[in-house]
Amino acid sequence: MKYLAAVLLAAIPFVSGCQSALNEYIMRGDVASVDASLSSSNYRNNSGYAGQACFRNQPEVLKLLVEKGSALEETGGGASALFSCIVYDRPEMTRFLLSKGVSIADRDIKLARKFPRIQPIMQAELARRATPGAPLVASSAAPTPSQPVAPAVAPAPERRNPSSDVDAPSRRGVERPNDFALVIGIEDYQSLPKADYGARDAQTVRKHFEAMGVPARNIISLEGSQATGSKLKNYLQQWLPRNVKPESTVFVYYSGHGAPDPENGDAYLVPWDADPMFLTTSAYPLKQFYAELAKLKAKRVVVALDACFSGSGGRSVLAKGARPLVSKVDESVPSSANLTVLAAASGSEITGTLDDQAHGIFTYYFLKGLSGGAKTPRALYDYLKPHVQDDARRQNREQSPTLSGSGAD
Questions:
Q1: 301 Cβ contact partners less than 8 Å away, ≥ 6 residues apart
Q2: Tens digits of residue pLDDT in 78-109
Q3: Closest Cα to residue 166, out of 208, 217, 198, 199?
Q4: I want to staple 407 with a disulfide (CB 3.0 to 4.6 A). Which of 142, 174, 207, 340 is the partner?
Q5: How far apart are CA 39 and CA 24, in angstroms?
Q6: How many CB atoms lie within 10 A of CB 239?
Q7: pTM score, two decimals?
Q8: 342 - beta bridge partners?
Protein backbone atom coordinates (compact mmCIF):
# COMPACT_ATOMS: atom_id res chain seq x y z
CA MET A 1 0.00 0.00 0.00
CA LYS A 2 2.84 2.41 0.79
CA TYR A 3 4.38 1.76 -2.63
CA LEU A 4 1.04 2.34 -4.37
CA ALA A 5 0.62 5.59 -2.46
CA ALA A 6 4.07 6.68 -3.60
CA VAL A 7 3.19 6.04 -7.26
CA LEU A 8 -0.07 7.98 -6.90
CA LEU A 9 1.72 10.84 -5.16
CA ALA A 10 4.26 11.08 -7.98
CA ALA A 11 1.45 11.08 -10.55
CA ILE A 12 -0.51 14.03 -9.09
CA PRO A 13 1.31 16.80 -10.97
CA PHE A 14 1.11 14.90 -14.25
CA VAL A 15 -2.64 14.31 -14.02
CA SER A 16 -3.40 17.90 -13.01
CA GLY A 17 -1.31 19.36 -15.84
CA CYS A 18 -1.79 16.78 -18.53
CA GLN A 19 -3.62 19.07 -20.92
CA SER A 20 -0.87 21.68 -21.36
CA ALA A 21 1.08 21.87 -24.60
CA LEU A 22 4.36 21.56 -22.71
CA ASN A 23 3.24 18.29 -21.16
CA GLU A 24 2.52 16.91 -24.62
CA TYR A 25 5.98 17.95 -25.84
CA ILE A 26 7.56 16.25 -22.83
CA MET A 27 5.52 13.09 -23.38
CA ARG A 28 6.82 12.84 -26.95
CA GLY A 29 10.39 13.76 -26.06
CA ASP A 30 10.20 16.78 -28.39
CA VAL A 31 13.24 18.63 -27.01
CA ALA A 32 13.05 21.50 -29.51
CA SER A 33 9.41 22.30 -28.66
CA VAL A 34 10.10 22.04 -24.93
CA ASP A 35 13.00 24.47 -25.36
CA ALA A 36 10.81 26.90 -27.31
CA SER A 37 8.07 26.73 -24.66
CA LEU A 38 10.54 27.40 -21.86
CA SER A 39 11.91 30.41 -23.75
CA SER A 40 8.50 31.96 -24.31
CA SER A 41 6.72 31.16 -21.05
CA ASN A 42 7.10 31.06 -17.30
CA TYR A 43 7.12 27.28 -17.15
CA ARG A 44 10.66 27.06 -15.85
CA ASN A 45 9.76 27.40 -12.15
CA ASN A 46 7.30 24.51 -12.19
CA SER A 47 9.05 21.43 -10.92
CA GLY A 48 6.17 19.24 -12.05
CA TYR A 49 7.61 19.28 -15.54
CA ALA A 50 10.94 17.82 -14.41
CA GLY A 51 8.96 15.07 -12.69
CA GLN A 52 6.94 14.61 -15.86
CA ALA A 53 10.16 14.01 -17.81
CA CYS A 54 11.11 11.31 -15.29
CA PHE A 55 7.66 9.74 -15.52
CA ARG A 56 7.78 9.70 -19.32
CA ASN A 57 11.38 8.41 -19.39
CA GLN A 58 12.67 11.38 -21.39
CA PRO A 59 16.26 11.96 -20.15
CA GLU A 60 17.13 14.58 -22.79
CA VAL A 61 14.09 16.62 -21.82
CA LEU A 62 15.05 16.36 -18.14
CA LYS A 63 18.55 17.64 -18.91
CA LEU A 64 17.09 20.59 -20.81
CA LEU A 65 14.68 21.42 -17.99
CA VAL A 66 17.51 21.39 -15.46
CA GLU A 67 19.69 23.56 -17.73
CA LYS A 68 16.83 26.04 -18.04
CA GLY A 69 16.45 26.29 -14.28
CA SER A 70 13.51 24.02 -13.58
CA ALA A 71 13.03 23.60 -9.83
CA LEU A 72 13.85 20.11 -8.66
CA GLU A 73 12.20 20.17 -5.26
CA GLU A 74 8.65 19.31 -4.21
CA THR A 75 5.71 20.18 -6.43
CA GLY A 76 2.30 21.19 -5.18
CA GLY A 77 1.41 17.51 -5.10
CA GLY A 78 4.29 16.79 -2.74
CA ALA A 79 6.53 14.89 -5.18
CA SER A 80 9.97 15.99 -6.34
CA ALA A 81 11.64 15.12 -9.64
CA LEU A 82 14.02 12.83 -7.76
CA PHE A 83 11.10 11.10 -6.08
CA SER A 84 9.45 10.56 -9.49
CA CYS A 85 12.63 9.13 -11.01
CA ILE A 86 12.94 6.70 -8.11
CA VAL A 87 9.32 5.56 -8.06
CA TYR A 88 9.33 4.99 -11.84
CA ASP A 89 12.69 3.15 -11.63
CA ARG A 90 14.84 5.44 -13.80
CA PRO A 91 18.44 4.73 -12.67
CA GLU A 92 20.30 6.95 -15.16
CA MET A 93 17.93 9.88 -14.64
CA THR A 94 18.23 9.43 -10.88
CA ARG A 95 22.02 9.50 -11.21
CA PHE A 96 21.80 12.67 -13.30
CA LEU A 97 19.64 14.50 -10.75
CA LEU A 98 21.92 13.48 -7.90
CA SER A 99 24.92 14.73 -9.87
CA LYS A 100 23.24 18.13 -10.00
CA GLY A 101 23.13 18.35 -6.21
CA VAL A 102 19.40 17.77 -5.85
CA SER A 103 18.14 17.55 -2.27
CA ILE A 104 17.56 14.06 -0.88
CA ALA A 105 14.64 13.58 1.48
CA ASP A 106 14.31 10.76 4.00
CA ARG A 107 11.43 9.31 2.00
CA ASP A 108 13.65 9.22 -1.13
CA ILE A 109 16.17 7.10 0.77
CA LYS A 110 13.47 4.75 2.05
CA LEU A 111 11.82 4.45 -1.37
CA ALA A 112 15.13 3.71 -3.11
CA ARG A 113 15.50 0.56 -1.01
CA LYS A 114 12.58 -0.96 -2.94
CA PHE A 115 14.39 -0.64 -6.29
CA PRO A 116 17.48 -2.83 -6.83
CA ARG A 117 18.74 -0.62 -9.67
CA ILE A 118 18.29 2.62 -7.74
CA GLN A 119 19.52 1.62 -4.27
CA PRO A 120 23.28 1.34 -5.08
CA ILE A 121 23.17 4.71 -6.86
CA MET A 122 21.56 6.32 -3.83
CA GLN A 123 23.98 4.65 -1.41
CA ALA A 124 26.99 5.82 -3.42
CA GLU A 125 25.70 9.39 -3.50
CA LEU A 126 24.94 9.41 0.23
CA ALA A 127 28.45 8.18 0.93
CA ARG A 128 29.93 10.80 -1.37
CA ARG A 129 27.96 13.61 0.24
CA ALA A 130 28.99 12.42 3.68
CA THR A 131 32.64 13.21 2.90
CA PRO A 132 34.12 16.57 4.00
CA GLY A 133 33.25 19.38 1.64
CA ALA A 134 30.15 17.67 0.30
CA PRO A 135 27.58 17.55 3.14
CA LEU A 136 24.45 15.49 2.76
CA VAL A 137 21.44 17.61 1.87
CA ALA A 138 18.59 15.90 3.67
CA SER A 139 15.83 18.49 3.43
CA SER A 140 13.20 18.29 0.71
CA ALA A 141 12.04 21.87 1.15
CA ALA A 142 12.25 24.09 -1.94
CA PRO A 143 14.90 26.85 -1.78
CA THR A 144 13.76 30.41 -1.26
CA PRO A 145 15.39 33.64 -2.54
CA SER A 146 17.20 33.99 0.78
CA GLN A 147 18.24 30.36 0.64
CA PRO A 148 20.78 29.81 -2.18
CA VAL A 149 20.52 26.62 -4.12
CA ALA A 150 23.17 24.05 -3.18
CA PRO A 151 26.07 24.22 -5.64
CA ALA A 152 26.12 21.59 -8.35
CA VAL A 153 28.53 18.75 -7.87
CA ALA A 154 30.55 16.93 -10.47
CA PRO A 155 28.46 14.25 -12.22
CA ALA A 156 29.10 10.64 -11.46
CA PRO A 157 31.44 9.16 -14.06
CA GLU A 158 29.61 7.57 -16.95
CA ARG A 159 30.46 4.10 -18.16
CA ARG A 160 32.62 4.79 -21.18
CA ASN A 161 32.55 1.18 -22.25
CA PRO A 162 29.22 -0.26 -21.08
CA SER A 163 29.15 -4.02 -21.15
CA SER A 164 26.57 -6.76 -21.06
CA ASP A 165 26.71 -10.51 -20.73
CA VAL A 166 25.43 -10.81 -24.32
CA ASP A 167 28.13 -8.65 -25.93
CA ALA A 168 30.68 -11.38 -26.70
CA PRO A 169 28.92 -14.39 -28.26
CA SER A 170 30.85 -17.60 -28.82
CA ARG A 171 30.91 -19.34 -32.18
CA ARG A 172 28.07 -21.83 -32.35
CA GLY A 173 27.68 -22.79 -35.97
CA VAL A 174 29.53 -23.62 -39.15
CA GLU A 175 29.67 -20.98 -41.85
CA ARG A 176 26.42 -20.66 -43.78
CA PRO A 177 27.56 -19.08 -47.07
CA ASN A 178 24.06 -18.71 -48.48
CA ASP A 179 22.59 -16.85 -45.49
CA PHE A 180 22.31 -13.05 -45.34
CA ALA A 181 21.51 -10.38 -42.77
CA LEU A 182 20.46 -6.73 -42.83
CA VAL A 183 21.03 -5.03 -39.47
CA ILE A 184 19.75 -1.50 -38.80
CA GLY A 185 20.37 0.39 -35.56
CA ILE A 186 19.72 4.10 -34.93
CA GLU A 187 20.27 5.91 -31.64
CA ASP A 188 21.20 9.52 -32.43
CA TYR A 189 18.76 10.79 -35.04
CA GLN A 190 19.30 13.77 -37.29
CA SER A 191 16.46 15.78 -35.75
CA LEU A 192 14.57 13.46 -33.39
CA PRO A 193 14.97 12.29 -29.78
CA LYS A 194 17.41 9.46 -29.17
CA ALA A 195 16.41 5.83 -29.33
CA ASP A 196 18.58 4.73 -26.41
CA TYR A 197 21.12 1.99 -27.22
CA GLY A 198 19.77 1.57 -30.77
CA ALA A 199 23.19 1.53 -32.46
CA ARG A 200 24.72 -0.59 -29.71
CA ASP A 201 21.91 -3.12 -30.09
CA ALA A 202 22.68 -3.43 -33.80
CA GLN A 203 26.42 -3.86 -33.24
CA THR A 204 25.82 -6.73 -30.83
CA VAL A 205 23.18 -8.36 -33.02
CA ARG A 206 25.67 -8.38 -35.90
CA LYS A 207 28.20 -10.22 -33.69
CA HIS A 208 25.57 -12.85 -32.89
CA PHE A 209 24.66 -13.36 -36.54
CA GLU A 210 28.35 -13.89 -37.33
CA ALA A 211 28.62 -16.32 -34.39
CA MET A 212 25.69 -18.26 -35.86
CA GLY A 213 27.63 -18.70 -39.11
CA VAL A 214 26.39 -15.85 -41.31
CA PRO A 215 29.53 -14.68 -43.18
CA ALA A 216 30.62 -11.11 -42.44
CA ARG A 217 30.61 -10.39 -46.18
CA ASN A 218 26.90 -11.29 -46.25
CA ILE A 219 25.90 -8.85 -43.49
CA ILE A 220 24.97 -5.24 -44.19
CA SER A 221 25.01 -3.07 -41.07
CA LEU A 222 23.44 0.40 -41.20
CA GLU A 223 24.02 2.40 -38.03
CA GLY A 224 23.21 6.00 -37.14
CA SER A 225 23.65 8.39 -40.07
CA GLN A 226 24.24 5.44 -42.41
CA ALA A 227 20.65 4.29 -41.86
CA THR A 228 19.02 6.79 -44.20
CA GLY A 229 15.73 6.17 -45.94
CA SER A 230 17.42 5.84 -49.32
CA LYS A 231 19.95 3.26 -48.10
CA LEU A 232 17.27 1.25 -46.34
CA LYS A 233 15.30 1.21 -49.58
CA ASN A 234 18.34 0.28 -51.67
CA TYR A 235 19.32 -2.71 -49.56
CA LEU A 236 15.75 -3.97 -49.17
CA GLN A 237 14.70 -3.56 -52.78
CA GLN A 238 17.97 -4.21 -54.64
CA TRP A 239 20.79 -5.77 -52.62
CA LEU A 240 18.81 -8.52 -50.91
CA PRO A 241 16.80 -9.60 -54.01
CA ARG A 242 20.01 -9.69 -56.05
CA ASN A 243 21.92 -11.85 -53.57
CA VAL A 244 19.60 -14.25 -51.76
CA LYS A 245 19.12 -17.78 -53.07
CA PRO A 246 16.25 -20.24 -52.73
CA GLU A 247 18.13 -22.05 -49.95
CA SER A 248 18.98 -18.82 -48.04
CA THR A 249 17.84 -17.79 -44.59
CA VAL A 250 17.64 -14.00 -44.33
CA PHE A 251 17.82 -12.24 -40.97
CA VAL A 252 16.60 -8.65 -40.70
CA TYR A 253 16.98 -6.68 -37.48
CA TYR A 254 15.79 -3.12 -36.78
CA SER A 255 16.41 -1.07 -33.64
CA GLY A 256 15.14 2.51 -33.63
CA HIS A 257 11.99 4.58 -33.70
CA GLY A 258 8.67 3.64 -35.20
CA ALA A 259 5.81 6.05 -35.87
CA PRO A 260 2.04 5.83 -36.45
CA ASP A 261 0.03 7.82 -38.97
CA PRO A 262 -2.69 9.31 -36.72
CA GLU A 263 -5.11 9.55 -39.65
CA ASN A 264 -5.20 5.95 -40.82
CA GLY A 265 -3.22 3.90 -38.30
CA ASP A 266 -0.47 2.89 -40.73
CA ALA A 267 2.87 2.13 -39.06
CA TYR A 268 6.27 3.38 -40.26
CA LEU A 269 9.91 2.64 -39.56
CA VAL A 270 11.80 5.90 -38.96
CA PRO A 271 15.20 6.11 -40.71
CA TRP A 272 17.92 8.47 -39.44
CA ASP A 273 16.85 11.33 -41.71
CA ALA A 274 13.06 10.92 -41.48
CA ASP A 275 10.60 13.60 -40.39
CA PRO A 276 7.38 12.49 -38.65
CA MET A 277 5.66 15.53 -40.19
CA PHE A 278 6.15 13.89 -43.60
CA LEU A 279 5.83 10.20 -42.87
CA THR A 280 4.67 9.12 -46.31
CA THR A 281 7.72 10.61 -48.06
CA SER A 282 10.52 10.33 -45.48
CA ALA A 283 9.76 7.19 -43.44
CA TYR A 284 9.45 3.56 -44.54
CA PRO A 285 5.94 2.04 -44.41
CA LEU A 286 5.91 -1.12 -42.33
CA LYS A 287 3.53 -2.74 -44.84
CA GLN A 288 6.01 -2.11 -47.65
CA PHE A 289 8.90 -3.29 -45.48
CA TYR A 290 7.15 -6.62 -44.91
CA ALA A 291 5.99 -6.87 -48.54
CA GLU A 292 9.55 -6.44 -49.86
CA LEU A 293 10.83 -9.16 -47.55
CA ALA A 294 7.95 -11.51 -48.38
CA LYS A 295 8.87 -11.27 -52.09
CA LEU A 296 12.41 -12.54 -51.51
CA LYS A 297 13.10 -15.93 -53.08
CA ALA A 298 14.55 -17.23 -49.85
CA LYS A 299 13.78 -20.36 -47.86
CA ARG A 300 12.93 -18.25 -44.82
CA VAL A 301 13.07 -14.62 -43.66
CA VAL A 302 13.23 -13.89 -39.93
CA VAL A 303 12.62 -10.30 -38.77
CA ALA A 304 13.27 -8.87 -35.29
CA LEU A 305 11.92 -5.36 -34.57
CA ASP A 306 12.96 -3.49 -31.43
CA ALA A 307 10.66 -0.55 -32.07
CA CYS A 308 7.10 0.45 -31.26
CA PHE A 309 4.39 2.35 -33.10
CA SER A 310 2.23 3.92 -30.40
CA GLY A 311 3.67 7.45 -30.73
CA SER A 312 3.64 7.62 -26.92
CA GLY A 313 7.33 7.31 -26.07
CA GLY A 314 9.94 4.59 -25.86
CA ARG A 315 11.15 3.79 -29.38
CA SER A 316 8.33 5.65 -31.12
CA VAL A 317 7.79 9.24 -32.20
CA LEU A 318 4.92 11.42 -33.40
CA ALA A 319 4.70 14.50 -35.60
CA LYS A 320 4.95 17.81 -33.75
CA GLY A 321 1.50 18.96 -32.65
CA ALA A 322 -0.14 15.59 -33.35
CA ARG A 323 -1.73 13.41 -30.70
CA PRO A 324 -1.62 9.62 -30.59
CA LEU A 325 -5.36 9.17 -31.13
CA VAL A 326 -5.12 6.04 -33.26
CA SER A 327 -7.19 3.30 -31.65
CA LYS A 328 -5.25 0.57 -33.43
CA VAL A 329 -1.99 0.73 -35.36
CA ASP A 330 -1.77 -1.62 -38.34
CA GLU A 331 1.29 -3.81 -37.78
CA SER A 332 -0.09 -6.84 -39.60
CA VAL A 333 2.30 -9.25 -41.29
CA PRO A 334 1.36 -10.46 -44.79
CA SER A 335 0.57 -14.09 -45.31
CA SER A 336 3.78 -15.63 -46.59
CA ALA A 337 5.20 -19.09 -46.21
CA ASN A 338 8.69 -17.77 -45.58
CA LEU A 339 8.22 -14.67 -43.38
CA THR A 340 8.29 -14.62 -39.57
CA VAL A 341 8.34 -11.47 -37.42
CA LEU A 342 9.33 -11.07 -33.77
CA ALA A 343 8.29 -7.60 -32.54
CA ALA A 344 9.22 -5.94 -29.26
CA ALA A 345 5.78 -4.68 -28.22
CA SER A 346 2.15 -4.87 -29.19
CA GLY A 347 -0.67 -2.40 -29.64
CA SER A 348 -0.33 0.88 -27.76
CA GLU A 349 2.62 -0.31 -25.65
CA ILE A 350 6.03 1.32 -25.64
CA THR A 351 9.41 -0.37 -25.67
CA GLY A 352 11.95 -0.02 -22.88
CA THR A 353 15.63 -0.47 -22.15
CA LEU A 354 17.79 -2.18 -19.55
CA ASP A 355 20.29 0.45 -18.44
CA ASP A 356 22.39 -2.06 -16.49
CA GLN A 357 22.85 -4.08 -19.71
CA ALA A 358 22.88 -1.05 -22.07
CA HIS A 359 20.45 -2.72 -24.47
CA GLY A 360 16.78 -2.65 -25.32
CA ILE A 361 14.86 -5.12 -23.16
CA PHE A 362 13.60 -7.02 -26.19
CA THR A 363 17.02 -7.12 -27.85
CA TYR A 364 18.73 -8.27 -24.66
CA TYR A 365 16.47 -11.30 -24.26
CA PHE A 366 16.43 -11.93 -28.02
CA LEU A 367 20.21 -12.31 -27.83
CA LYS A 368 20.05 -14.35 -24.63
CA GLY A 369 17.70 -16.72 -26.40
CA LEU A 370 19.99 -17.02 -29.42
CA SER A 371 22.96 -17.70 -27.12
CA GLY A 372 20.93 -20.33 -25.28
CA GLY A 373 20.38 -22.31 -28.43
CA ALA A 374 16.78 -21.50 -29.37
CA LYS A 375 16.29 -23.43 -32.61
CA THR A 376 13.12 -21.83 -33.95
CA PRO A 377 11.43 -18.40 -33.78
CA ARG A 378 8.73 -20.04 -31.64
CA ALA A 379 11.26 -21.30 -29.11
CA LEU A 380 12.95 -17.92 -29.06
CA TYR A 381 9.61 -16.18 -28.53
CA ASP A 382 8.55 -18.55 -25.76
CA TYR A 383 11.80 -17.73 -23.98
CA LEU A 384 11.92 -13.97 -24.36
CA LYS A 385 8.25 -12.97 -23.92
CA PRO A 386 7.91 -13.68 -20.17
CA HIS A 387 11.32 -12.14 -19.43
CA VAL A 388 10.46 -8.94 -21.32
CA GLN A 389 7.07 -8.75 -19.60
CA ASP A 390 8.63 -9.19 -16.15
CA ASP A 391 11.28 -6.51 -16.65
CA ALA A 392 8.74 -4.08 -18.12
CA ARG A 393 6.47 -4.53 -15.10
CA ARG A 394 9.39 -3.71 -12.83
CA GLN A 395 9.44 -0.41 -14.72
CA ASN A 396 5.73 0.01 -13.99
CA ARG A 397 4.48 -0.55 -17.54
CA GLU A 398 3.44 -3.30 -19.94
CA GLN A 399 5.43 -4.65 -22.87
CA SER A 400 4.43 -7.88 -24.59
CA PRO A 401 6.45 -9.06 -27.60
CA THR A 402 4.56 -10.60 -30.51
CA LEU A 403 5.25 -13.43 -32.96
CA SER A 404 3.66 -13.33 -36.41
CA GLY A 405 3.97 -15.25 -39.66
CA SER A 406 3.67 -18.83 -40.76
CA GLY A 407 7.32 -19.81 -40.29
CA ALA A 408 7.38 -19.66 -36.49
CA ASP A 409 8.12 -23.35 -36.06
A1: 249, 250, 252, 293, 294, 336, 338, 339, 340, 407
A2: 467 888 888 888 888 888 888 888 888 888 88
A3: 208
A4: 340
A5: 16
A6: 14
A7: 0.62
A8: 304, 403
